[in-house]
Amino acid sequence: MDESYIKMWWKATEIQKQKRPGHPEDWKWGDIYSDGEHTLVVVPDHFPIQGYIWLPRQDDLQAMLSGSDWGKASRFYEFIWGRNHKEITEYAEQFLSMEQLWLAFVMLELYHKQWCNGEWREEDDRYTERSSSAPQRR
Q1: 104-114 as b/e, with b when 16 or more CB fall inside 10 Å?
Q2: Number of folded domains in the chain?
Q3: Which domain holds residue 29?
């Protein structure tokens, strides 16, 4: 796991609220957690401790979204390519892995937040299209 991906997760408090450290009933086998330096995977009878955060897998992120798999794929495609479908949006282009890209997509879909200068911020259309004209809201 790269450092910037883990930082994005530390700041994704809306999603982190779904898993509470110290509450084994919230954790499931195979979940991945990090304290920013160490990463661990939950196995039976071993649960994360305070100071660790949940790092959802891609299937966990996809399960958070509503709609059919085809609907999710279509929205994800538009998230990457924008409405013109000709070139990758400036916003999507900043992410270096599919994990980062999916996290950014889920945060935008569910919480209307975008990753900007190391923080999750309320959605700002200027990050969604490359066009110099004012983009339409997503």
Answers
A1: bbbbbbeeebb
A2: 2
A3: 1-56
